[in-house]
Design goal:
The structure is a homotrimer. By secondary structure, the first copy, chain A, is of the alpha/beta class. Helix content of chain A is 31%, strand content 23%. In chain A, helix 5 links the parallel strand 11 (173-179) and strand 12. Chains A and C meet through helix 10 of A and helix 6 of C. Chains A, B, C: This is Peptidase M28.
Chain lengths: 427, 427, 427
């Protein structure tokens, strides 16, 4: 794992700022989140009205919540939304009532196997109200009447998402997507949001080859909305990465695109293996995060997903234990570093054509062959040139060269640069 | 192995009824066999005249035999066809002579390595006469003269084979073939005949997708005759299975078609693996049973072969030890069960097209998403729907879905049914 | 390894005759070498003038050397070209001077890690002069002045290479190439030259299917010159083998062509595996011997390379320790035997078409089926016929048949011959 650097601490600070907000698939929590992210990178925010048809779906009513609690007979709040956004069932309809605990119970959600933790639950598309609380809290409640109140609104409004674009040399795009719909859950997905924001910043410092588009949108309905509104742009999307669960202590996991042999798949496999980090590479499955949508068979984009411990793979998943202590600056910095390495390879993975393909060109008279020999670096540079010449037949890219030669990608890319300058190959 | 069921006992009873008959590639033994099988499933019997050109071959003369023996000087039959149809060389020409044992010996066939067993030998295409006997019997014969008599006829007649068709929803066919030319040998191939008959019965109880054609024919020349007379039908044959050696105590063996990646190959590999039975999957070889003919390069049909211990793989092979005791109700029931499982998969292995392929369709509003969650079956059903939607791109069938998802084929097929009903996919 | 035969001793004698000559990429040493090889097989010698453009290169000036030495103050030669052609830097420019050892040192090349050995060094394309000597010799030199003299000429002349052709039944060619530019180095590449010469002799004793062209040329520039002058012929080159390091005690190593699945690659892999010799099969790399040129992407010929211990893989490589003692008759005979086996397979690896592809043809009535059965050879011959018939679909050659059947290639080829004679298949 990469050493803790300042950027890790900065990302963790962003996670902590975003943590208290009550996000959902619509509403002011998302807007507040995007305002804060916008302090780091400029964002173009989109508001899509309730009722807008998006692919097979419809943009739902906007949900906002001001207050929610369960109070006992003395008026004391025994469960209070103000303490944690997890306490209210996501998309809870308003309620204001007094009822005995026996009746209230069927609106209460706990995690008996982790009695101190509060679960995260939602009911987006079926009108419900409810509270999430720890089993310990529930067990301590005496029978009797309780006042329950959810001061929420479900009404026509908008779905909100944002984009940030790092322009490249070509209009072909790489998308980086992360979901912004989860309330107070740090790894899922504030860490992903933070890594995405700092990745965008890093890319903007150079002029990349590809145009990189960062999408901050609610899960599922947000990705579907983006796809519905960007039908023509989708053809420009050549590669992509969904970032989620980017800060937990587990090892890195890359989930391949549905195609399995997309260039992003090959790049991520290569970079993870070459980095000698412990990691996993998983096959595509049609559940998880928004790779589900980008890889649906009609689009079938070359979009994979990078996580540390993947979707639902850790006990803290979707509970109050997924808090800022669960994600570390070091882990987020490591995730960020791998993204940068991968995009560094992806961005330079050109196919070249050997312009002198009959026999070897005479490198020596072009000053490309170190006649002193001996130095290991010079030797590697020469081998890399021979490999690039050998495989620059229009069918192999520099990643192929790196894989077949066993030489570092950087060495191969440098050799290609020298040969290009000498007029021996062209992209 | 499946528990013994009534059907196993029924199949064994059929083997015992057929065992005494003297079958060969032509003649009344085959006709008698088909008459008995016809009591279980209706058969269409074909008689093809001697001399009929069939592909590169010609239908041979019909062979029938009434009696055959070797008698000693006292007139006592020391080898008697009436005791076992194996005692006479198949297709023996008639003989009636007296000769010393020294001269007789070159017409006698024994198995010195199994001195108590009688071998099975034939000479279909070169005129010969001979007897098969145990080494022990031979060793006990004193020198001296013996009367030998084979009361057989080789004359113009017919080659006999039969078909049984289970009509399906489509005219595309699955053929199930078994050879009926061996005399008193239980595993090779009375067990195969019995499994085929009861498989046909089972299929007839439902309306399968494919049309299933059962072919009961003598080996090699029978399959060649069928192919010669069904030149147009062959194009309808999409899959097939040759059944042989279906009742011995060994584990199941599937021999792949010449193509190796035919759908029947994939189905059999999947079903055998999913069933967790010990089994073998073998590459195609151009020897064995009638898969040789169906898979000859001009036809190259997707026809594999299911056996227990395969062709020539057990010491009892082609000897008197391959008797009804060698095959068990349990083993035959197990072979039958695997055939039914395999055809159950084959029959439902449709390719569907996702009619809502851009993003995931909203399963919830169609009642397809169990909003309660939690139950393991419901969870599996949902995953199966997502997998079917993801892979229904016109290039993957339900077997692909089952293999890639790791979900049971039945679960996948049920999910496809639900999605089809909801109008989200079509075959 | 094959037993020592007369041919091994003959090849070793040739190595010893060639060893003292001072070869380089041009000059009289190459001519003398080709004259001696020409005593074994007739050679067509080509002389290409200095300055001739050849692909991306130009034929260099011709280098010849008469004498070279370092003499001490007493006039005693402490390093003498007459003792070993390795003592002078290849392509040394003339020099005649007296200088102190301190100044001379930067023109001296030693191998400190092997103090008794003399290294082999060249400077073809940068004008230099120098001497190679053992570290021990250098260490024994007292400081003081030394006379240095290289009596060489670098002048317009020619590059010399030779060809020997064994005509075949077809004009499609197999090339066998070996480099002739190294001075007194036995394994690299006098052993390769010797194996090539005796391989040519052996091939000439039969009429092979392919035309076999043997190329004796200096490394790199020689292969490039040949390719430049044979632009149309290259299209006839279907297969090829570069022979180098053919006599050391190590096990055989086959380096695959750039294509990796060329027929020569398959043949060599098959023959080496079938022979049960310990051996290695390596991937193509764009460095090594003249496979670099033949496999450059513009040509991309099916040319592999056969060595024992490969390029730079043994400590004696490019030193005075690579002398005739380092190569053995036994090892060279073994390399030769593998070449003959491989070309024996390559030469017979036809694709046949089954002319009776519908069902099995009746082998018996054509006398192809040994009706006696039983004998293991006859059984193998029958299996081989069935395999050839099964795979003779226009897509498989006899090597495919041998690999899939597990039968020896010779058995398969004999079966194909019998079927061809019977009119059942055609090439």
């Amino acid at each position: 794992m990469a050493p803790v650097t300042g950027v890790g601490e900065e990302m963790h600070a962003l996670v902590e700022r975003l943590y208290p907000l009550c996000r959902s698939i619509t509403g002011d929590g998302v807007r507040a989140t995007l305002r804060i992210v916008g302090e780091y990178i400029p964002l173009q925010v989109h508001e899509v009205p309730t009722g807008t048809p998006v692919l097979d779906w419809t943009v739902p009513e906007e949900w906002n919540i001001r207050d929610a609690y369960i109070a006992d007979a003395t008026g004391k709040r025994v469960v209070d939304f103000a303490a944690s956004s997890l306490h209210v069932l996501g998309y809870s309809v308003p309620v204001s009532a007094t009822m005995p605990l026996s009746e209230l119970r069927r609106h209460l959600h706990t995690l008996p196997e982790h009695p101190a933790w509060v679960p995260y639950r939602t009911s987006y598309y079926r009108p419900e109200w409810g509270f999430c609380l720890s089993q310990e809290t529930l067990d301590a409640l005496p029978e009797g009447d309780y006042e329950v109140r959810v001061d929420s609104t479900l009404a026509d409004g908008h779905l909100t998402y944002a984009e940030h674009v790092v322009p490249g040399q070509v209009s072909d795009e790489v998308i980086v997507s992360c979901h912004v719909c989860h309330p107070s859950l740090a790894n899922d997905n504030l860490a992903g949001i933070a890594v995405a924001a700092f990745l965008a910043r890093a890319l903007a410092e150079e002029t990349p080859y590809y145009t990189y588009r960062f999408i901050f949108a609610p899960g599922t309905i947000g990705a579907i909305t983006w796809l519905a509104r960007n039908a023509e742009r989708v053809e420009k999307v050549k590669h992509g990465l969904v970032l989620a669960c980017a800060g937990d202590p587990g090892r890195l996991t890359y989930k391949q695109s549905r195609r399995g042999d997309a260039e992003i798949d090959r790049v991520m496999r290569y970079v993870l293996a070459a980095s000698e980090r412990p990691h996993s590479v998983n096959e595509f499955t049609p559940y998880g995060y928004d790779e589900r949508q980008f890889c649906s068979p009609g689009f079938d984009l070359g979009v994979g997903s990078l996580s540390r411990t993947p979707y639902a793979g850790y006990p803290e998943y979707h509970t109050s234990a997924d808090n800022p202590d669960f994600v570390s600056p070091r882990a987020m910095a490591d995730t960020l570093a791998v993204c940068r390495e991968a995009f560094g390879v992806l961005d330079r993975n050109r196919r070249y054509l050997n312009l002198s393909p009959y026999g070897e060109p005479q490198l020596g008279r072009r000053g490309l062959y170190d006649s002193l020999g001996g130095r290991s670096d010079a030797k590697q540079a020469q081998l890399a040139m021979l490999w690039v010449l050998s495989l620059s037949d229009g069918e192999h890219g520099l990643l192929d060269v790196a894989e077949r030669s066993g030489l570092p990608f950087d060495t191969v890319a440098a050799a290609a640069g020298a040969l290009d300058t000498a007029g021996l190959i062209k992209a």
